[in-house]
């Protein structure tokens, strides 16, 4: 269907009276002519979820060399759709359609790509529905709300052959790619341990209370695959992250996803053998935050390799000098890497190389975007066209996200977990009950 549509556009363009290959056109506006050029590679893009990550897509979609057209802005909140259109109008010179229901967007055969920036509980369901509908998908982190959904996405990608990329944008940062390649080529000897960290200053959140559904919000569609519950203030706007496990994945899925991905990438490990966690709510004990806000997790891998996660959501003390990043230890040296670049040290602790990023991307600030995200999204576009190797295939994204889920399950069961290193499954029946989730009737995942 994609090829037939593009072939039709191309043939129609070539047969239009007045067009010459010298770049002159009569009877056709310059704007219309520009839309014809490269139409066989143009990607029609829809964005679902127009909240805090929306700004990350202005540049990769608005730049001419991306050769994409934004055809839909989709969100379950009316004011988000209207605000999204107004904000994007500064970056594109045409108007995309506004839509409430992601299913209608997916049903449109004119759409090639879905950017899935919905809340966590929609990430995997929205992605598998889109892949089944013939779309390529860029899905924000975490790619799943539970471990089984990650497995489903890998299976769906293999079945439908679509490009699915998770928004772990540091995989496309030039400095990160550089230092990871150096590590793999022996720059610090044998890497054996990585410490991933995050320190933020999140404040109090409201205690959720029964409230009318906000004007313009389709609460039923917001819940989507999640079991139905009455609306509670202030759930829909970001605080769903902290109000239980129906929609969010706690700070592990929200932020550890990034740094644990870098750690796993550096150490070249897949599934751990053991997971242990110490986590609790340590701050603002009477507020509405219902899960841990502080976590120390240890993942032990085959080959005596270790990844540690030091997550402090509401304590801004910069233990490692910055608010987020990864320290990788090796037999002959160490590396500090974050979104600003990296520092390479010898075994004596002397810095022997310092590479600073020429761009910038937010650390602990909410939302936004930046050079890394632009490169990551453009890499996704070009991978669809077969022009670049995909920087983050979904099977890699799913493995990193699984570490977040395992940490959450260890916290929720208050148990250390023994893991099957062949597939990441937990060798504990009680803990494996949290491998999947209960879905609202009619929203069950594909078998």
From TrEMBL:
<dbReference type="InterPro" id="IPR019546">
    <property type="entry name" value="TAT_signal_bac_arc"/>
</dbReference>
<feature type="domain" description="Gfo/Idh/MocA-like oxidoreductase bacterial type C-terminal">
    <location>
        <begin position="210"/>
        <end position="320"/>
    </location>
</feature>
<dbReference type="InterPro" id="IPR050463">
    <property type="entry name" value="Gfo/Idh/MocA_oxidrdct_glycsds"/>
</dbReference>
<protein>
    <submittedName>
        <fullName>Secreted protein</fullName>
    </submittedName>
</protein>
<feature type="domain" description="Gfo/Idh/MocA-like oxidoreductase N-terminal">
    <location>
        <begin position="43"/>
        <end position="167"/>
    </location>
</feature>
<dbReference type="InterPro" id="IPR000683">
    <property type="entry name" value="Gfo/Idh/MocA-like_OxRdtase_N"/>
</dbReference>
<dbReference type="InterPro" id="IPR036291">
    <property type="entry name" value="NAD(P)-bd_dom_sf"/>
</dbReference>
<dbReference type="Pfam" id="PF01408">
    <property type="entry name" value="GFO_IDH_MocA"/>
</dbReference>
<dbReference type="GO" id="GO:0000166">
    <property type="term" value="F:nucleotide binding"/>
</dbReference>
<dbReference type="InterPro" id="IPR006311">
    <property type="entry name" value="TAT_signal"/>
</dbReference>
<dbReference type="Pfam" id="PF19051">
    <property type="entry name" value="GFO_IDH_MocA_C2"/>
</dbReference>
<dbReference type="InterPro" id="IPR043906">
    <property type="entry name" value="Gfo/Idh/MocA_OxRdtase_bact_C"/>
</dbReference>
């Amino acid at each position: 269907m994609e090829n037939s549509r593009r072939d039709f556009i191309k043939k129609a363009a070539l047969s239009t009276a007045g067009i010459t290959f010298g770049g002159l056109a009569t009877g056709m506006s310059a704007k219309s002519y520009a839309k014809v050029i490269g139409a066989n590679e143009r990607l029609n893009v829809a964005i679902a979820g127009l909240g805090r990550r929306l700004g990350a897509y202005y540049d990769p979609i608005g730049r001419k060399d991306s050769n994409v057209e934004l055809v839909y802005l989709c969100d379950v909140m009316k004011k988000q759709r209207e605000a999204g259109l107004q904000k994007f109008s500064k970056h594109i010179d045409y108007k995309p359609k506004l839509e409430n229901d992601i299913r209608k967007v997916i049903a449109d055969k004119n759409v090639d790509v879905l950017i899935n920036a919905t809340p966590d509980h929609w990430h995997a369901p929205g992605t598998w529905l889109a892949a089944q509908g013939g779309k390529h998908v860029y899905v924000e982190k975490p790619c799943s709300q539970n471990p089984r959904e990650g497995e489903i996405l890998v299976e769906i990608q293999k079945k439908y052959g679509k490009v699915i990329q998770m928004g772990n944008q540091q995989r496309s940062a030039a400095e990160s790619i550089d230092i990871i390649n150096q590590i793999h080529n022996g720059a610090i000897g044998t890497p054996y341990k990585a410490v991933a960290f995050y320190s933020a200053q999140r404040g109090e959140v409201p205690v959720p209370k029964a409230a009318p559904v906000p004007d313009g919000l389709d609460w039923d569609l917001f819940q989507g695959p999640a079991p139905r519950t009455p609306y509670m203030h202030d759930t829909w706007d970001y605080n769903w992250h902290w109000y239980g496990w129906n929609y969010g994945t706690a700070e592990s899925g929200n932020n550890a996803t990034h740094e644990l991905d870098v750690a796993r990438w550096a150490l070249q490990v897949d599934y751990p053998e053991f997971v242990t966690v110490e986590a609790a709510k340590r701050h603002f004990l009477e507020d509405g935050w219902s899960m841990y806000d502080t976590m120390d997790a240890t993942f032990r891998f085959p080959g005596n390799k270790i990844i540690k996660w030091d997550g402090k959501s509401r304590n801004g003390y910069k233990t490692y000098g910055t608010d987020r990043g990864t320290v990788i230890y090796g037999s002959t040296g160490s590396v500090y890497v974050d979104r600003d670049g990296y520092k390479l040290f010898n075994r004596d602790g002397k810095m022997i190389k310092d590479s600073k990023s020429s761009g910038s991307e937010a650390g602990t600030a909410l939302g936004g975007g930046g050079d890394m995200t632009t490169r990551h999204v453009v890499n996704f576009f070009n991978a669809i066209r077969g022009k670049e190797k995909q920087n983050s295939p979904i099977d890699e994204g799913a493995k990193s996200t699984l570490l977040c889920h395992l940490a959450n399950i260890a916290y929720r069961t208050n148990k250390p977990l023994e893991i099957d290193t062949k597939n990441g499954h937990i060798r504990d029946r009680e803990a494996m009950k949290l491998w999947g989730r209960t879905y609202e009737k009619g929203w069950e995942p594909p078998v």
